[in-house]
Specification:
The chain is α/β, with parallel strands linked by helices. The protein is about 55% helix and about 10% strand.
Length: about 200
């Protein structure tokens, strides 16, 4: 008997997967057959929830995802996962639309979606680089500045948590050494939590 297995993902810890879960439930995926990755980017293929979902499907089953970019954020990864599922006799449903690799139009649509998913990541990286270039230029006009301002350090930590950038990427984006990136992340990790105690 064929079954439906669902998969959902979000890149940031502060994001909520409720909406994606509701979409999967609305597509007749049982609650216990939904696998999730929270705070992991789609450019990272090594995701525990994805691995569990791919391991759970069998020939004749359908893997259901709300959108293709939840499954993969690069064209090679999307194609590889799609081809692997097809070879195993597993169907792929993108928001309720079945992907049919034997249909030329369906295959073209799949490739277009994968291209847009990858484009969004590349665009985000480009905007980050441009923003940092502007910030560096302003810093030079104001005279000698610390390696990273408090705001830049906060931005660096946020970019690291998003999972979209490696340590090397962050060092290049912020024009600092890798050692500086590690120091900023270490200071953030060791920073005392804000006090929540109040007067009685």
């Amino acid at each position: 008997m064929s079954e439906r297995v669902g998969y959902a993902r979000c890149s940031l810890d502060k994001q909520d997967l409720t909406a994606q879960r509701e979409i999967l439930l609305g597509l007749d995926v049982p609650e216990e057959r939904i696998y999730l990755d929270h705070g992991l980017t789609g450019t990272n293929r090594d995701r525990p929830g994805l691995a569990q979902a791919l391991a759970a499907v069998r020939a004749g089953d359908t893997l259901v995802v709300p959108k293709l970019d939840r499954l993969a954020r690069s064209v090679p990864d999307a194609r590889d996962i799609g081809d692997s599922l097809t070879a195993r006799g597993v169907k792929l449903s993108l928001g309720g639309t079945l992907y049919d690799p034997a249909d030329p139009m369906g295959k073209m649509f799949f490739n277009i979606l994968a291209t847009f998913a990858e484009f969004e990541v590349d665009l985000l990286r480009m905007r980050t680089r441009e923003g940092m270039a502007v910030a560096r230029a302003k810093g030079k006009l104001k005279g000698k500045q610390p390696k990273l301002t408090a705001r830049q350090q906060t931005h660096l930590v946020q970019q690291h948590r998003s999972g979209e950038h490696t340590i090397a990427d962050l060092a290049e984006l912020f024009s600092v050494s890798r050692a500086t990136v590690y120091r900023v992340l270490e200071r953030q990790q060791n920073a005392p939590a804000p006090s929540t105690s109040g007067g009685q």
